[in-house]
Write a structure and sequence with these properties.
Blueprint (H helix, E strand, L loop, with lengths): L6 E3 H7 L5 H9 L3 E3 L2 E2 L6 E3 L4 H4 E3 L2 E2 L7 E6 L30 E2 L7 E8 L2 H8 L7 E7 L7 H6 L16 E6 L2 E6 L6 H8 L4 E9 L2 E2 L9 E3 L2 H6 L6
Parallel strand pairs: 9-13
Antiparallel strand pairs: 1-4, 2-3, 2-5, 5-6, 7-9, 7-15, 8-9, 10-12, 10-13, 11-12, 13-14
Helix pairs in contact: 1-2
Length: 248
């Protein structure tokens, strides 16, 4: 296989990144609003090499280029926003630049966190990566910090680890999960599945109620400490790989 660097027409690339129609991109280029290595790049129908450093070298309307297709974002999802393209109310996509809504391929969340759960959320336009993360065969575990309404009983860890717990309305037991108590009403819970409201329903099955829920880890990737709620950044190749490597 050749290691040749892929290329794309500049107007098509920028249109697919949401900057506007091809005609609008051509106008930007003709008016000197697209710079490559500091010099105007006016031939918008020319092909350009999609090198890893292109995001630093290409300036569009005064700003560095948005992440190229194949991006994986880590977001610190805040409370009160929904992982949806269509539901009413604030959405996680509202936290991204408006033009990112027009990207093709579109950005999607890798799984979901409910409206009242905060923490590590991945967003990508790479369908193969998305399906690899959520595929059961990948064994990507998710760790949550739960604050509970009532004190832990003491037997939760044994029950969750047994792999026999049935959630209400289901007939298939949960896979074994790991509980680590970190306070009288607080615990880390690591699960290997992603069933609907799973962590909340697990504690409910034992007569408790989750008051606060925060995801801090996916596989070997921890929520970056420099991400405030609502902030995000692109992951590099090593960080993406760490998701599938277990705890780092």
């Amino acid at each position: 296989m050749s290691g040749r660097t892929p290329t794309a027409r500049l107007d098509k690339l920028l249109a697919n990144l949401g900057y506007g129609s091809r005609r609008e991109i051509q106008m930007l280029a003709r008016n000197g609003h697209i710079l490559l290595d500091g010099a105007p790049f006016q031939a918008a129908d020319s092909r350009i090499a999609l090198t890893p450093d292109l995001e630093d070298r290409l300036i569009v309307d005064g700003e560095r280029l948005d992440p190229l297709p194949g991006v994986v974002l880590a977001m610190h999802k805040p409370l009160g926003v929904t992982c949806s393209h269509k539901e009413a109310g604030p959405l996680v996509y509202d936290l991204l630049p408006a033009r990112w809504r027009r990207r093709d391929p579109a950005l999607s969340t890798v799984g979901r966190l409910d409206k009242e759960t905060s923490g590590l959320l991945l967003i990508t336009d790479d369908g193969a990566f998305l399906h690899k993360v959520i595929a059961p065969r990948s064994h990507v575990e998710k760790r949550y910090r739960a604050v509970l309404a009532r004190p832990l009983r003491g037997d939760e860890g044994q029950i969750f680890a047994a792999g026999t717990l049935l959630l209400e309305g289901e007939d298939k037991p949960l896979l074994p999960a790991t509980l680590e108590a970190i306070g009288e009403r607080e615990a880390f819970l690591t699960v290997g599945e992603g069933r609907y409201h799973q962590v909340r329903r697990m504690f409910a099955a034992l007569g408790n109620h989750v008051e606060e829920l925060h995801r801090d880890r996916l596989g070997g990737l921890a929520l970056p400490g420099d991400l405030a709620p609502g902030a995000y950044r692109a992951l590099d190749a090593a960080e993406r790989a760490s998701i599938f490597s277990g705890r780092s």
